[in-house]
Design goal:
It comes from Tetranychus urticae. It contains 12 helices and 2 strands; from the N terminus they run αααααααααααββα. By secondary structure, the protein is mainly α. It has one domain. The longest helix has about 50 residues.
Length: about 350
Amino acid sequence: MSSPTRSDPPKQIILEGYILPSKYILGPVTKIFLLFTIAFCPAFKIAVYSIDVFQNYGYTTKISIFEWVDPCIFLIILSLKVFVVLFGFNPDYFKKFISTVEPLSIEFNSATVGKIKRNRRLNLNILAASFICYSILSMVYVSPYMKILGTTRVTLLIIDEIFIVFGSLFLYNMVCNICICLHAAFNEINAQIAALNETSNQLFNSFREIRSLRKKYSHAVRSTKYAEKLVRCFITLFYIEYFSYNIMNIVKLFGPQAKIEPIYLSSICMQTIHLMLLTYNLVSVNNLSRQGLEDLYELSFKLNSIHLYHENDIFIARMALSDVGFTFANLFTINNSFITSMSTLSLTLIIALASFIYH
C-alpha cells in the first residue's frame, strides 16, 4: 500500500512559521503589510515628532546639542525604516530562496523537520514576549505626555507604535526562520559528509556521492545569497539602530546629573535580547557552512582515485574559500570577528564622546 502523497511538501515546511498564513507569504500581502507597519506608521511618527524636535532647536552648549542629537537619530532611524521597505525589500529574492532550498529536500528527514519546528517555536516565543514587553514600555513612556500632547494625539501614537512593533516582529521572525532553514540545510550536508567519512574504504570507488554533496552545498550557498539580498538592508539597519541608541544611552550615564531610569534599562534589555537572538542565528549560518571541512580533509586519506581526489579538493576549496553568510551593507560578513569589531568600535566611541562632551 503506497503512502499518501503531500502536495508541494518542501514549500509547506519552508513557508510555515512566518506569522502570516503560508498561502499569502509569497504574494503581495507581505509587501502591503510591511508598507503599512514599517513605512506608513513610522512616517506618521516622523511627522508628529519632527515638529517638536526642530521647533526646540537653539542649543549652544555641547551637552544641550548632544541632547538634541538624540531625537534626531531617532527620526533618522525611522526614516531609514521607511526607505528599507520601499527600496530595500524585494520579495522576488524570497521566491528564489524557496526555489533553491527545495532541491535540498530537508523536509523528508523527520528529525530535521522536528528540529526546525522546535527552533521556530522557541524563536517566536522569545520574540513575541520581548516585543509585548517593549510595547508596554512604549505605552508607559508616552502616557505621562497625555496632558501636554492631548489624549487623541497620544492614543494615535500608541496605536501607531503597536503596528510598528508588530511589523518589526514579523521581520525579526522572518530572518530567524530563514536562518533556521539554512541551519537545517547545512547540518544535513555536514552530517552526510561525516557519514561518508565513516564509511568503509570499499565504497570509495565512485565520485557520485561527493559530487552529489557538492551540488547540495552549491544549492545551500545560493539559497543563502538570495536570503542575504532579501534582508540585507534590514539587518544593516538593525545593527545601526541598536548600537547608535545604546551608545547614546550609555554616554548619557557619564553626565553630571545622570540617573538610571528603569524604563530605559528595560528597553535596552529588550533590544539586547533581539540582538543576541538575531546575531546567534546569523553567525550560525556562517559557522555551519564550514563545519564539514575537517571531515572532508580526513576523507582525502581514504580516497583511491585521482578523480576522487580532484572532486574532494574542489569541495574543500569551495567550502574553505567561500565566505557564506549574511552581511552588513554587503561590506562585512556577520561572523564572530564582526561582532567583536562592532563591540570594540562601540566602546571606543562611548569613551571618546563621553570625554569630549562632559570633560
